[in-house]
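WARN retry 2 of 3 for item q-0093 after timeout on previous attempt; input resubmitted unchanged.
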Amino acid sequence: MKSSVFKRLTTAQLFVALAGGLALYLTPGEAQGFLHTPFRELYVAGLAALIALAILVIFKSYETVGLALTTGMVFLMTGFLSEKVRSMVELTVVDGAFTFDYQSGIIWGLIWMTPFLICMLVRIFSLNEWDSPQKREDFTYFFQWASIAFYVFYVVLLIFSFILIRKINLAGDRQLNLIPFYQIFRYFSSASDVVYYLFGNLLFFSPIGFFLSVRHPALKWWKKLLIAFGIGIVIEVSQYLLNTGMADVDDVLLNAAGFYIGCGAKRLVDFVRRLISGGTETSIPYYPRYLSSSTDAADQRSEEG
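OK item q-0093 returned
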């Protein structure tokens, strides 16, 4: 098995991955100049889809798409950190500097998710030339790059959501809700709040459950439950101690539910692929380390446990 990306990809593929990553990075700024919500999000998702599809059609390479995703997210991280350093040095927001807010967080989520879903769907329903051993190996490297891209984006999102926009107020009054489903039912009175509160908390933790299930397929359900609730509890306790927001039991419940939605998505992917492949693939080997393994069925049974 080839170990280096420089051995697996041609010079042209490496160049296209770099150019594609740069195009993904520049897309939000380009859309901001002449489009408004929700057309901006549609434009960004559509352009990200076109970039991914063009690479797949021309080069027939999953990994090139994954490397483009990682390149784009590295540009994002660089721009995000450089803007924060410049702001701290000059004690103000620099004109024309890179900006990141909740709306741009959604946009960057679409930039990552759209190519990821396209490649995932092609792999799930792949047959004939797209189902060769070489293509399966190519996809595992794509998934590895795509997961790195997600982790980079997630770090930026966490820094922004839980550090930069929250002010510590140790002396102020703290807000606490320990009544399950109280805030959930309350937010149903506003459609916009439902979308932001419910889907925001659910989707924020879904990828964690998905990637954890992929990386550790034999992890027991009760360990996943401890991880899901543990992450949510740590976040809410920190918010209460630092007084950076309301500590809410409903957030913990929604975070755990989102985590398990991600775990369920992993099972659904395996189930659909098992049907499409006629049972020859019971679990798609996402990471390169699974390529040499012939225990897909055993792994699937372990995961079910």
